[in-house]
Amino acid sequence: MSELTEKDYPTFTQMYKSLPERSSIKAPKTEFVEKVAKITKKSVKTVRCWIAGTQKPDALAQSVLEKEFKVPAKYLFPEVS
Question: Looking at residue 6, what DSSP letter applies?
Fold first, then answer.
């Protein structure tokens, strides 16, 4: 069994961008942002900053997102070099 690497997991931004565009009901990307805001107890604006990369979630929010998406936080929010 091979060990999982960074390339085996999507980033938080990739997860958002892979969602379909607006539909006849609520837009999937809006639903995603609102869901993340609700489970992390953060504002929609804060979540959008995470997606844009202008902010990074605190350790507690990262832990919640790890559990929700079953992806290690280091892959959801990779360090930009």
Answer: G
